[in-house]
Structures are given as C-alpha cells and as structure tokens.
Amino acid sequence: MLAKPARVSYASPVRVTDDALLLRRFRFGESSLVVHAATRSHGRVHLLAKGVYRPSTRFYGALDLFDTLRLEWQTGPGRELGNLTAATILVRRHRLAADLDRYRAALTILELLEVGLQEEQPAGELFQLACGALDRLLTWPLPDRPLVEFELAFLQNLGLAPALSECASCGGPAPATGFPDREPEESRRVLFSAQCGGRLCADCAQEARALGRRVGSLPEKVLQAAARLAEPHRPHALPLDAATLVLVRDVAARFLEYQLQARPKSYRAFLSGPHRNRIP
Ligand SMILES: [Zn+2]
Question: What is the pTM of this model?
C-alpha cells in the first residue's frame, strides 16, 4: 500500500521574525500604514501595519525611520503585502531626526540600502553596515565622515568599488600626471574615470579617451584619503580635514551615481552644492 502523502496547505500563512530598518512609510486607509522595510535575512519586504493610528495600537512609537526594529509578520505564497503582527525597538535613533544634516545623511543611507537590497534575498552584511553607519551618525561631530565611509563600504559590498590606488584598466601603477617629483604633494593630480572604474594610468587613459570615455583628473590626496577610508578595518580616528572629506564625498557620490545609473534623491542638494567650484 502506498503511503499517504503528507498534507501541505499552501494557503496557510507563515510567521516570520527578522531585524529591520524602515525605508518608507505610506498611510493606508483611515488608520493603517504600509511600510517598506530592509531586513537582515529577507531583503526588502512590504508590510501592512493595521490600526497603527488608533489609540490602542500595539505599534505605538515603534515604527520610526532609523531605528533598528525586530518585526514579526505573517506572509504566504503570492502575497505581496505581509501582515505586520509585532514590532519592537532594538536600537532607538530618534535623535537623528532632530538635526537636518544628520537627518539627510541618514536618509541617504536608507536610500542606498534600498537600492542594494533584493526582495527575499538575505543581505546581512549590508544591513549591518547601514546600522553601524546610523550609529556613527549619532556620535560623530559632523555627518559627512560616517556617510562617506558608508558609501565606500556600500560600493565594496556590491562589488563596484572604484580603483583608488592602481589603474582600473590594467591593474598596474597609475602615477600622478605631469612631473610629480617636481611638484609639491598637495598639487599632484591623477587621472580618473567613473566609466572605466576609477584611477587610470596614462596609457589606459589615452585608450579610454580614444573610445570616447570621459576621463578627468583629481587631486591625488583625495584618492589617497578615499583609499584609507575604504579599508575594511579603517581606524575611525584617522584625521582628515573637512575640505578633503568633502572632495572624497564628491568622488564617492559621483561614482555611485554613475554605477547605479541614477542619482539618489538625497544627493541632489549635495551634488549641486557650491563645493564643486572649490575643487582645486
Ligand atoms: Zn592602465
């Protein structure tokens, strides 16, 4: 006699628990909220939080941007929207919303996190990078530094990091242009192309230009600073002056913009800012 097959009900909901950062919130109907969340093990998820605006809500104060949350939801095959059943705050970062510059930097981190995540794909390392960057935004005197560190780590995590020390095309040395030995270190420049993946040697730059690619030049000290910030176990105390940091951010943001083929919304103000005209 054949064994009776086990009964599987595809309709029964599955209960899921995961750590999360909220990416977006949309009001839904009179009293509910739809949230898009980045999770540690399930990538990007879309959840419905019912009755969130009712006085008796169990989600009271627990669905804010920037906090690390533990969410519990029910989902099932074919369901685009999970049903949020519980939310607990693991790390509260409400102070990020009290300062406009920190708030903007924190939004940029969330925006990049959203770009880097897939639905139902675990991305624990990226999730952890974002949580660490939000934590540092709270403690660092100015937001630029934790943000640029995150941008460089984000590119590395996606396998898109720019070549900062060697030539992006041939992997060989890519010395400063002109007569670097006769120039003060401060004014040495190197060839750089986002289209080619970063720093270039003179031969590869010539080839790239012949193929119609854009090649520019940047102060060598900016790429050296970016390389130091991109080291995985970088010393957070590494001193870096504010002017160089802005230029590193500019390189990282433009490189990101090119690699992602889109300008994240939160970059608009930064990339059209007056610092562009100060690049030596
Ligand atoms: Zn080369």
Answer: 0.84
Distance, CA 171 to ligand 1 centroid (Å)?
6
Q: Cα of 174 to ligand 1 centre, how many Å?
A: 7
Ligand 1 centroid, distance to 210 Cα (angstroms): 14
Are 66 and 106 a contacting pair, CB within 8 Å?
Answer: yes
- What the block records as the tokens of 170 is 């041939």
Domains with residue ranges and CATH for the chain: 14-94 (2.40.50.140), 145-278 (1.20.1440)
Tell me, what DSSP letter sits at residue 83? Answer: E
- Is residue 130 within 8 A of residue 109, CB to CB? The reply is yes
Separation of 172 CA from ligand 1 center, angstroms?
Answer: 6
242 burial level (CB within 10 Å; 0-12, 13-18, 19+)? exposed
Other Cβ atoms less than 10 A from the Cβ of 250: the count is: 20
pLDDT in tens, 68-117: 999 999 988 778 899 999 999 999 999 999 999 899 999 999 999 998 88
What is the whole-number distance in angstroms between the Cα of residue 209 and the centre of ligand 1? 13
- Ligand 1 centroid–CA 276 distance in Å is 27
What pLDDT shows up at residue 23? 95
Centre of ligand 1 to C-alpha 199, Å, is: 9
